[in-house]
Amino acid sequence: MICRLIVGLTRSMLKLHQWKLLVLALAANVTLIASLAQGDSKRWAQINWLDVISEGGAALLALVWLLLILHSRPNGRVTQWLSIGLSCIFLASFQDWLDEFIAFPVSAFWDHWVESGLMPIGLGLLTFGIYHWHQEQLTINEQLRKRERLFRDHRGLDFITQLNGATYLRKLLEQELHHSRQNNLTLALILIDIDFFDATNRRYGHAEGDRLLQALGELILLNIRRNDLLCRYAGDRFALVLPNTTRSLAETISEEIALAIQHFAFKTSGQGESIFHSASTGIAIAGDTLQQPDTTEDLLQRATRNLLQTKEKRPNFIDQVA
Predict the structure, then answer these.
(1) Of 22-26, 309-313, 318-322, which range is least confident?
(2) pTM for this predicted structure
(3) Complete domains list, the chain, with CATH
């Protein structure tokens, strides 16, 4: 069963991580050849089969763990630390296993170095990699928490960006407006529109446009606060709800998001071409007009009006709309 698992995993990961496996296989073969060349085979009665099983099992498990990690993770810093650490543990266990079959002379100091040196190094690198893996998972969980806001409605999710849609946005705004009025707090709404998105769809196709929207959604999530909520409002337009936020702070967050989008290089799946976009934003603050109290539609209409005013100031806006 374990052999079939190893074979199956090796086939699926060969293209992505083949150099790591080749280097490990080369190191294991060098260790084996050096051991056979310098040591003498033990007699059958000298072999401790309990040690053979335990040490061989440790080497095999380290190899299986390595294959599982390479199978489930892309290339990157965390994957490198994990794979190097497990490779060192495997080589140390493998050399320890060879000792059960081969008797080395006292002068063969490298044998003890491989066993006793690579093991703590491997454990240290593995621990370092697991720590950064933990930090990586915390970041992912924080993004999910921002997206869900404790009362995520799965029926309202947009299947492209995995964000809540316009229906959920209106429901949330109604709740937040009621909460803000009761507690005398401010509430901000930012509409974010991707400039000239239709041109990207026409040139690269709708599939690439969908990938771009998904990437931009993730990018915006990384640039908002703990209690903010991002939704896909319509088409290439996102809506960001900012509880307890003043106009000056909303403007700062809006500028930071627009700057992040402007510097984001989206890679196409075909030729890997870099695509850059800018974004226009429109801000509405609950209670900043004489009309009281604000409704959900009031807030959305003001944010939309401010957004269109921003877009009209951009070059070629009229040509793009036409």
Answers:
(1) 318-322
(2) 0.53
(3) 2-146 (no CATH), 154-321 (3.30.70.270)
